[in-house]
Design a protein that fits this description.
Helices cover 55% and strands 7% of the residues. It is of the alpha+beta class and 198 residues long. Bound molecules: glutathione. Glutathione (GSH) binds next to helix 4.
């Protein structure tokens, strides 16, 4: 199986951590998102990473679908609960973590495209959203104790925020969340996937 990815993407990191935790071997193929390769746009009409290409040529995207696929082909450790109530709770937290990635990526892209005249209102509104998410997750730390798609997603989201906008991750403001993140970051799967530019 090949994973089209970039070493900085939080969505790809989430998939990679899932694969490492499950002992699934992925062949990593680094993609250029400015000049997209024919292979990427053929595999995914959206031209986005992460995209998984199976050995039989089938392609799978986006990251929640890839994670669900990996959870099905290698059930241990189970990262998406089967019990309906637990599943709902974990998927909601996972959606919030994915949303935190979306907000952070959007802010980074706005500043990257317009370094001097970025939309300050847009950035300010998204910073408020980020802080609201931190308050939300800080209050949910007990739910994050298990290794699952939500805890992996959130750790990947915070890792990306810390990589791009460390000033926003003022961990002293969210002590429980900060302690949880520090402990989670010690997992070998997290250490192996620390974001880097290239
Ligand atoms: N919802 C998607 C988001 C993936 C995404 O936005 N990936 C970014 C990189 S971090 C991308 O491929 N951007 C290129 C583009 O949008 O053209 C997922 O969860 O996989």
């Amino acid at each position: 199986m090949k994973l089209l990815y970039t070493p900085r993407s939080p969505y790809a990191r989430k998939v990679r951590v899932v694969a490492i935790e499950k002992g699934i071997d992925l062949e990593l193929v680094s993609e250029d998102l400015v000049k997209k390769s024919p292979g990427l746009v053929k595999a995914n009409p959206l031209g986005k990473i992460p995209t998984l290409i199976l050995d039989n040529g089938q392609t799978i995207f986006d990251s929640p679908v890839i994670c669900e696929y990996l959870d099905n082909i290698q059930p241990s450790p189970a990262l998406i609960p089967k019990d309906p109530q637990k599943r709902l709770a974990v998927l909601i937290l996972a959606a919030a973590a994915d949303g935190l990635m979306d907000v952070t990526v959007a802010m980074f892209m706005e500043k990257a495209r317009h370094p001097r005249d970025f939309n300050a209102d847009f950035i300010a509104a998204n910073e408020v959203t980020v802080k609201r998410c931190f308050v939300y997750f800080d209050g949910q730390v007990d739910q994050l104790k298990e290794l699952n798609i939500a805890s992996i997603g959130l750790a990947s989201a915070i890792g990306y925020l810390n990589f791009r906008m460390p000033q926003l991750w003022r961990s002293t403001d969210y002590p429980r969340l900060a302690r949880w993140y520090e402990a989670f970051s010690k997992r070998p799967s997290m250490k192996e996937t620390v974001p880097r530019e290239k």
